[in-house]
């Protein structure tokens, strides 16, 4: 039969073929086709012949085709056919599909849909035909019966796709079905159906099957729904990451059911690559990605960003078109996240409302950690982001030339946090990815070398951490470091010191690098620039410190502080130590030449020798001999001659120019420190051993010289140095300059001799010496606060500094508490501050410095202050918290302040009170806000403010600041602000002079002297912070609403969780409104109070407007506005807006009074100053009026939308046009003329001017 059909098909006309096919029974043809196809024979040719004999123009032919299609589809699905045969059959069916009439196409499509929904497909091969059927259907113009109605071909296709997407898809055909749609012309709505269906299948599929499905979705997204595709992918993997992290941090038993971490990261990496590839082909997809993630920044950036989306963004930076905007987006997100964190940390009110969540910084570091799973496409983006953060937010220069350098422990500001994050990203990336190491090192060194004029401490810290992590690994990059050495002589001294310190571990493992550095330093030693020579000295001193000579004392013996990396790297063999000795003696020879150079170079050498000795004790002989021979040049050996030092030789005269040649005081200081160290450390170890006399000679010589200098300096008078009272000290004459230098040298020498004699205990105690010692301690602490280190021995050693701080604090605390200032001052009157007051000043500086530089050691510091018996302390320490220890110290200072406050006003020591409050403020920061000790501190401070009235403005300001800082960490300060505003109103009176204000006296600290400007400005500043917090919350709510409007259900459900936040916002604004209600009626004196109040009122109305606009957004879905919002609007209309206009009139009338009174009696300069102040004060008025009008405008919109008349409580604003009315102008000018002739004429403004004048007197 098959032969017959084929032979008939070969004829030119198909008539006979048609006739023959019609004679066959129903099943014959399908059976024949089935047999032929299964046997692998010419099924394709047979199928072509059947189609030729079954034209769609005839009904019989159409039905035959229909049966053949069904038969072929079943054959292909059965899996009995060879691949080639199946492909050929499908190909033929595709070619012929468009000949079908519409109704049959609908039937065929429905067959497929049923097969998919029922899961009856076997291999899914036949699905290749479905897109062709749907495409053919879309081209049919005639109306087709579909269900109970009649639809066009296009509409039928839409219905079929909808039916297909709303049914069940078998997991194994999801990818095929999604892929199929790329060949169908789809409308935007149809693409959305398909995308939603495919995305909903993610959770039902194996992890390994998701990347190919994502790929198909990305291909499909070129037809539309790019946003949905990206949102769906990001949301799914963000949720998966979150679940994975929770399971890993939770119960270990859960790990059995969870996805292995490696597998998840590999799948995510593949998907990110797919998306990046798709963006390269379709830039619109990239724009949609950036737009989608930018939306999150308007509300809460953490909603949209996750480790997965951040990794995706970092990978997109490889596409140049998106690089800048993506990095900018990430940079902005990081800083916004840190600003949010700062706001949250500073407010208990916000902490209670906003749950703790992960921050962008944590997510980025998680991406770095995840990138170990072959995420090479992320590393370049990470490196760029790290450097951008460090470049943008590193320390900045300030006007006086100093840089704002902050230690990591104080990185509280958002910018410092961001810079630290950049460094962490680079360090962690460096550790994980070997390929990128060279680039990171190169970029860090480039910045160190090329940015000499700007602060680069953060890059040097990063370099130090990199070197410390892997000195041996970095040997391969040694060429980059040696290149940087070539620029040493051009870099600032501080940079050179820190750079060499950072790379020092490398010098121990790489001889070639060390040799290269020595060459560079030797050249620099003879450079023309002074800085280059100082750099050479610094470099050589560093080498001397770190290359130990055999026989040097161990680190425990000389309390040496070495970094961990040095301990790892420095393996001292006998050979190494012998080689080091030769090397060090060679350097000592080079350094001796510096003793003939400028004073600055010598000074560096003297400051460095002590550290060299301490680290490398075997060099003691060489160093001491050098110092002895240098001192002999300026020492008068004859014991009877006065003075004992040749100061003339220390001064260099070149023509008219006079300068210091030898810093003799520093030379003596160096000798004294080295000698003391030698006596305390080396000599005790040598006892019992036979020592060569030579070794001891220099020690005895130096001791004798210092003793002789001491005795002769005691006998010397100022005249011996030609420095009597008549001496010229002016800086304009050469003799004056010379005398100045001599005087400083004499003072310096005396200080050194005091220290030397104190160290050998030949001092009697005296008040003068005690005062001197406390003053020196204060200078050291001040130096630490400003620079992070101190001068003198161990000044660069943080451990030693900390130990000294503990000792000094203990002594100062004992002295201050045992001899109070009042007791000391009641005795003998001395010039300057009393010793107790100096001790308190020292304590204040130390508490501040410890929190700045030693935050992690606070517990240890407080333990050191505890002078009670130490037995069993180790056991008890674990139980005593920082809060408990701090509370103990706080109580001592509280007692002192109470004693001060109990004295009479005239005996009140305001300096001491101010210092005490500053100390209490510092210590209170260490209390845990949830502890009872914190609550006690708050109630104590509040009690002090309520019961003590002092007229000292500075004391009042610091005490109120303490109260506010404690209050915001415990709860919102709005009630406190309201009470204080009532007190201010009571003391200053009302803007309407006829109104007598009732005095409330909540806080005695508020009195006529302190109410304005001190307390007034403080409360306004706090109100501004509260408004900022409320504004932040409103922005957050708006962001949530804009994201939730995607589905109406979501938005209607989402309004419920926001209710506590909305309620809190309305409560805050309501209480602030009563606060402003008081202040706006207060007769405030002209100046900053009025100016700040007007600005804050403007902010208040802007915040109210923002809240109204939020309710405009949610009004429809939540069904109206809450009752308390209506009350807030009513309150603003009755208690604030009308009073604002009265206050504006009051301010303007005051400015007019200045015009009228000032012109006649005061000098033009005074009038100009007064007018400038008036202009400054009245400048915010138009802004405030505009803010009120904006608020009312949006209230009208909200009234219409909510069907609630919110404007019934609002009095319409005063009409304020700016038209010049000629008749009124003439009248005013005439009045002015009369005023000039008739002094004291009562004008219409006269009555208004009397009251403000009184109020100015009150101020």
Task: Supply the number of helical segments.
Answer: 56
- Name the helicity range: 55-70%
Radius of gyration using CA atoms only: 43 Å
pLDDT < 50 runs, ≥5 residues: 252-257, 398-411, 555-575, 1046-1055, 1238-1259
Reported for the largest beta sheet, the result is:
2 strands, antiparallel
How far from one another are the termini? 120 Å
Strand order of the largest sheet: 1-2
In short:
This protein is mostly helical. It is built from 56 helices and 4 strands.
Describe the structure.
This protein is mainly alpha-helical and 1259 residues long. 69% of the residues lie in helices and 1% in strands. The chain has 56 helices and four strands. It has a two-stranded antiparallel sheet with strand order 1-2. A two-stranded antiparallel sheet has the order 3-4. The radius of gyration is 43 Å and the shape is flat.
Features:
1259 residues; mainly alpha; two-stranded antiparallel sheet; two-stranded antiparallel ribbon; 4 strands; 69% helix; flat; disordered C terminus
């Amino acid at each position: 039969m098959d032969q017959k059909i084929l032979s008939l098909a070969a004829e030119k006309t198909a008539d006979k073929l048609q006739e023959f096919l019609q004679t066959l029974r129903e099943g014959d043809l399908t059976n024949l086709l089935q047999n032929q196809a299964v046997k692998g024979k010419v099924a394709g040719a047979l199928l072509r012949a059947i189609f030729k004999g079954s034209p769609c123009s005839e009904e019989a032919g159409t039905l035959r085709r229909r049966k053949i299609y069904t038969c072929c589809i079943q054959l292909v699905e059965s899996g009995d056919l060879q691949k080639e045969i199946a492909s050929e059959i499908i190909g033929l069916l595709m070619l012929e599909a468009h000949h079908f009439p519409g109704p049959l196409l609908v039937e065929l499509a429905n067959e497929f849909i049923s097969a998919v929904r029922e899961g009856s497909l076997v291999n899914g091969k036949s699905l290749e035909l479905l897109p062709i059927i749907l495409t053919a259907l879309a081209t049919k113009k005639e109306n087709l019966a579909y269900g109970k109605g009649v639809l066009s071909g296009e509409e039928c296709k839409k219905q079929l796709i909808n039916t297909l997407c709303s049914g069940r898809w078998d997991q194994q055909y999801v990818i095929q079905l999604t892929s199929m749609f790329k060949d169908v012309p789809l409308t935007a709505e149809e693409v959305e159906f398909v995308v939603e269906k495919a995305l909903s299948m993610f959770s039902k599929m194996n992890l390994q099957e998701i990347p190919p499905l994502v790929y198909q979705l990305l291909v499909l997204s070129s037809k539309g729904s790019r946003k949905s595709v990206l949102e769906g992918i990001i949301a799914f993997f963000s949720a998966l990451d979150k679940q994975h992290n929770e399971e890993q941090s939770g119960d270990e038993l859960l790990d059995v059911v969870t996805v292995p971490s490696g597998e998840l990261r590999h799948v995510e990496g593949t998907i990110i690559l797919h998306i990046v590839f798709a963006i390269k082909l379709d830039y619109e997809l990239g724009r949609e990605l950036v737009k989608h993630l930018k939306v999150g920044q308007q509300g809460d950036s953490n909603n949209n960003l996750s480790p997965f989306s951040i990794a995706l963004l970092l990978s997109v930076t490889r596409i140049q078109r998106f690089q800048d905007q993506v990095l900018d987006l990430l940079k902005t997100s990081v800083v916004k996240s840190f600003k949010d964190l700062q706001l949250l940390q500073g407010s208990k009110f916000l902490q209670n409302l906003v749950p703790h969540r992960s921050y962008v910084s944590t997510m980025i570091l998680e991406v770095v950690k995840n990138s170990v799973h072959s995420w090479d496409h992320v590393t370049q983006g990470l490196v760029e982001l790290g450097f951008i953060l460090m470049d943008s937010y590193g320390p900045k220069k300030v006007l006086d030339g100093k840089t704002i350098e902050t230690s990591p422990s104080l990185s509280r500001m958002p910018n410092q946090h961001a810079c630290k994050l950049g460094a962490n990203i680079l360090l962690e990336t460096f550790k994980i990815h070997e390929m990128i190491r060279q680039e990171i090192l190169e970029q860090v060194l480039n910045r160190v070398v090329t940015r000499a004029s700007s602060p680069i401490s953060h890059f040097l810290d990063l370099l130090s951490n990199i070197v410390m992590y892997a000195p041996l690994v970095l040997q391969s990059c040694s060429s980059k470091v040696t290149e940087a050495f070539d620029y040493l002589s051009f870099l600032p001294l501080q940079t050179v010191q820190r750079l060499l310190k950072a790379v020092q571990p490398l010098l121990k493992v790489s001889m070639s690098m060390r040799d290269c550095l020595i060459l560079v330093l030797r050249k620099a030693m003879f450079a023309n620039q002074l800085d280059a020579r100082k750099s050479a000295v610094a470099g050589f001193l560093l080498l001397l410190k770190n290359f130990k000579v055999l026989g040097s004392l161990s680190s425990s013996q000389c309390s040496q502080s070495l970094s961990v990396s040095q301990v790892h790297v420095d393996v001292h063999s006998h050979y190494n130590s012998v080689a080091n000795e030769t090397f060090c003696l060679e350097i000592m020879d080079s350094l001796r030449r510096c003793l003939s150079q400028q004073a600055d170079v010598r000074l560096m050498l003297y400051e460095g020798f002590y550290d060299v000795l301490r680290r490398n004790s075997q060099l003691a002989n060489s160093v001491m001999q050098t110092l002895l021979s240098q001192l002999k040049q300026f020492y008068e050996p004859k014991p009877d001659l006065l003075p004992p030092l040749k100061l003339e030789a220390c001064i260099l005269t070149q023509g008219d120019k006079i300068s210091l040649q030898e810093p003799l005081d520093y030379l003596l200081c160096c000798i004294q420190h080295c000698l003391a160290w030698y006596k305390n450390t080396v000599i005790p170890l040598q006892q019992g051993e036979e020592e060569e006399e030579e070794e001891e000679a220099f020690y005895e010589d130096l001791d004798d010289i210092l003793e002789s200098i001491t005795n002769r300096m005691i006998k010397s008078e100022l005249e011996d140095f030609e420095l009597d009272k008549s001496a010229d000290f002016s800086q304009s004459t050469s003799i004056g300059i010379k005398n100045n230098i001599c005087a400083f040298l004499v003072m310096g020498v005396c200080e050194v001799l005091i220290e030397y004699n104190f160290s050998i205990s030949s001092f009697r105690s005296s008040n003068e010496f005690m005062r001197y010692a406390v003053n020196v301690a204060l200078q050291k602490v001040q130096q630490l606060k400003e620079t992070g280190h101190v001068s003198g021995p161990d000044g660069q050693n943080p451990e030693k500094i900390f130990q000294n701080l503990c000792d000094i604090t203990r002594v100062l605390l004992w002295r201050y508490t045992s001899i109070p200032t009042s007791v000391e001052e009641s005795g003998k009157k001395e010039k300057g501050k009393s010793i107790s007051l100096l001790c308190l000043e020292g304590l204040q500086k130390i508490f501040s410095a410890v929190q700045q530089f030693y935050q992690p050691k606070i517990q240890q510091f407080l333990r050191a202050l505890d002078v009670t018996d130490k037995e069993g302390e180790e056991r008890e320490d674990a139980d005593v918290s920082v809060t408990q220890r701090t509370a103990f110290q706080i109580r001592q200072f509280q007692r002192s302040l109470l004693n001060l406050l109990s004295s009479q006003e005239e005996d009140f020591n305001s300096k001491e009170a101010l210092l005490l409050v500053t100390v209490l403020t510092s210590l209170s920061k260490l209390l845990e806000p949830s502890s009872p000790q914190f609550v006690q501190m708050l109630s104590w401070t509040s009690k002090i403010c309520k019961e003590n009235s002092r007229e000292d403005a500075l004391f009042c300001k610091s005490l109120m600041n303490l109260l506010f800082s404690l209050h915001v960490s415990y709860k919102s300060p709005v009630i406190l602000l309201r009470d204080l505003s009532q007190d201010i109103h009571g003391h200053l009176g009302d803007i309407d002079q006829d109104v007598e204000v009732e005095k409330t006296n909540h806080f005695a600290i508020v009195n006529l002297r302190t109410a304005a400007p001190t307390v007034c400005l403080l409360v306004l500043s706090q109100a501004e912070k509260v408004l900022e917090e409320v504004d932040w919350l409103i922005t957050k709510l708006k962001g949530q609403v804009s994201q939730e409007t995607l589905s109406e259900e979501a938005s209607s459900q989402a309004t419920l969780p926001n209710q506590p936040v909305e309620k809190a916002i309305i409560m805050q604004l309501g209480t602030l409104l009563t606060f402003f209600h008081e202040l706006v009626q207060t007769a405030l004196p002209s100046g900053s109070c009025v100016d700040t109040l007007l600005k804050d009122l403007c902010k208040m109305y802007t915040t109210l407007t923002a809240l109204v606009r939020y309710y405009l957004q949610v009004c429809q879905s939540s069904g109206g506005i809450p009752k308390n919002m209506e009350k807030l609007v009513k309150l603003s209309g009755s208690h604030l807006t009308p009073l604002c206009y009265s206050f504006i009139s009051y301010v303007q009338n005051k400015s007019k009074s200045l015009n009228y009174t000032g012109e006649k009696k005061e000098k033009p300069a005074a009038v100009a100053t007064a007018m400038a102040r008036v202009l400054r004060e009245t400048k915010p008025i138009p802004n405030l009026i505009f803010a009120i009008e904006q608020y009312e405008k949006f209230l009208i919109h909200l009234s219409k939308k909510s069907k609630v008349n919110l404007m019934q409580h609002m009095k319409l604003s005063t009409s304020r046009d700016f038209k010049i009315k000629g008749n009124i102008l003439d009248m005013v000018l005439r009045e002015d003329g009369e005023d000039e002739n008739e002094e004291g004429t009562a004008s219409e403004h006269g009555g208004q001017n009397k009251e403000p004048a009184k109020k100015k007197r009150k101020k």
